[in-house]
Amino acid sequence: MALDLDAVVAPFREVGGALSVAIEDEAGMPVASTSADAAPATATVRGIAAGALAGGVVRLWGNGVDGALGGAIAESIAASLAAVPPSEPAADPRVAAHARLIESELAHGRTLQRSFVSLIPPEVPGYDVAAHYEAAREVGGDFFDLFRLRRRGHPLSVVIADVTGKGIAAALLMAFSRPLLHAAIDHTAGPAEALERTNRILVEERRSSLFITALAARLDLRTGRFRVANAGHEPPLLVRADGSPIGCLLGSGPLIGAFGRLDVPEVETDLAPGDLILLYTDGVTDARSPAGERFDEWRLIETVQGVRDGTAQEVVAAVSETVCAFQEPAEPADDITIVAIRRLPARS
């Protein structure tokens, strides 16, 4: 067969045990695979429509992908193979184009997976909460989660994270890590312990050069106590209702997945009525103008200062719109995630 199928599955090898891919011919014989160990498939596409492997099979399995995302990946591989004529030589540049198609389709798969999680913040009495997520063209790895914990007082848990790098590997590590971190937060005493547990699992099971910056926080809705642990992520901005200068919640540890232990400190602050906390990923501050100038932290603080008395949604919208205008006419170079939480003044 002229087509270099190994080049088709090669991008998936970087994620190791999180995902395995195998391609079989019409007779059921394996012709390319990322792993010598087969397992029950998470997703299968049978009978590739046409092209170099007409009638062939694409199989996926592993602990880093669910059925929805696995189906999207398998379908994209099958579609790319169907588009390659049987006689097309491996050196033809169109082969590389079809490999890029896989990444493009994976972006759709990631969007499909995120559709199962509502981007509408949960109901939080006494607080105004807003969030914004904008995917870049490249397959990336931002994720965030806002949910009420199943314990006394039902505190609000906040997670915002970013997988380093881009492409298929980053998106798959995101897909694997998001529910893992969610479960850790649900079953630990605090944010720092949740990050530590997540890190331990990823260090023991992950086989890639990618890491995760993550910030986990817990908000006691009754007292306004905000506890946060930061593993190499951008520090949250704290906007006080008394008009004092906008500050940052400092205190951070190493990235998740880099070392056996994080030893991340927990930082606490009390949100008084009217105070606002802003969390974001580096897609905001690393945004570039057409001239190559970085948006940077000072522009972010300046933007928030201009709407510091607005609603959470107005603050989020001001940041996202300012970053978008700063980058125009270029497309975003990275995913952008913004979360704002304001404690509402007591009703008189």
Throw out a few tags for this protein.
alpha+beta; Phosphatase 2c, domain 1; 8 helices
Concise synopsis of the structure shown:
The chain has 348 residues and is an alpha+beta fold. The protein is built from 8 helices and 14 strands.
Explained architecture:
With 348 residues, the chain is of the alpha+beta class. It folds into 2 domains: 5-113, no CATH class; 120-343, PPM-type phosphatase domain (Phosphatase 2c, domain 1). It contains 8 helices and 14 strands. It has helices spanning 5-9, 67-82, 93-114, 168-186, 191-205, 282-285, 296-306, 312-327; strands at 20-24, 30-33, 43-46, 57-61, 127-134, 142-148, 156-163, 212-219, 225-231, 237-239, 247-248, 266-270, 276-280, 336-343. The protein has a 5-stranded antiparallel β-sheet with strand order 5-14-13-10-11. A 5-stranded antiparallel β-sheet has the order 6-7-8-9-12, covered by helices on one side. A hairpin with a 5-residue loop joins strand 8 (212-219) and strand 9. The longest helix has 22 residues, at 93-114. The mean pLDDT is 81.
